[in-house]
Structure formats: C-alpha cells, structure tokens
C-alpha cells in the first residue's frame, strides 16, 4: 500500500501549533496525491486504489496511462496517471470524492 506522508505531516504540524497556542484547530486530511518517482514509469495516484467495488476505466496511450476508478454511483474514488498524463493529476484530484 502506498500512502502520502509529507502533506499529512505538514497539516498535522499546523494543527498542532494552533492547539498549542490555545486556538481551535481540527485536523482534516483532504484527498492527497502520491507521487511515485521512478525513471522507467513515474506515477501519480490518489484515492483508495485497492477498493474491490470500483470499476476501472483505463486509457493507455503513447503519452501515458490514465486509469480512473469509479463506484456504483459513477463517482471518482481513485485514479492513477503516468508519464506525460501526470499533468492531469491535479484536475482529477479536484474531482475525487473522499
């Protein structure tokens, strides 16, 4: 299982600092992008890619791969993009239902 770790650390530290200063702070973790930086196949992914109930729409092209996992209500729950298609990751992240 691949999980993000830098963004949760930053958000947790910001929440902790507010609480230490006696300000109300609640930790809310949004859907986060995981970047796998390998020379042969760089990937960006987000959501719960391990869910068994997702239907995957996979488009593979010379420029890279876009795989979208949707649930029974056709809501985007996970995605994986590779190579030149990684520039689509932030737009997909905004569509992701947590």
List strands and helices in order, with pairings.
Elements lengths: L5 H15 L13 E3 L6 E5 L7 E7 L2 E7 L5 E7 L6 H7 L3
Antiparallel strand pairs: 1-2, 2-5, 3-4, 4-5
Can you offer a commentary on this structure?
The chain has 2 domains: 30 residues, no CATH class; 68 residues, Enolase-like, domain 1 (2-Layer Sandwich). The protein is built from 2 helices and 5 strands; from the N terminus they run H-E-E-E-E-E-H. A hairpin with a 6-residue loop joins strand 1 and strand 2. It is globular, with a radius of gyration of 16 Å. The mean pLDDT is 90. It comes from Klebsiella pneumoniae. Pfam families: Rbx_binding.
Question: Can you give me a brief rundown of this structure?
Answer:
InterPro entries: Rbx-bd (IPR041364). The chain is an alpha+beta fold and 98 residues long. It has helices at residues 6-20, 89-95, and strands spanning 34-36, 43-47, 55-61, 64-70, 76-82.
Helix-strand makeup class? alpha+beta
SSE sequence, one letter per element:
HEEEEEH
What gap, in angstroms, lies between the N and C termini?
17 Å
Q: List the strand order in the largest sheet.
A: 1-2-5-4-3
Tell me the quaternary state. single chain
Q: What is the arithmetic mean of pLDDT?
A: 90
GO molecular function: oxidoreductase activity
Domain Rubredoxin binding: 27-96
Pfam families: Rbx_binding (PF18113)
Protein name: FAD-dependent pyridine nucleotide-disulfide oxidoreductase
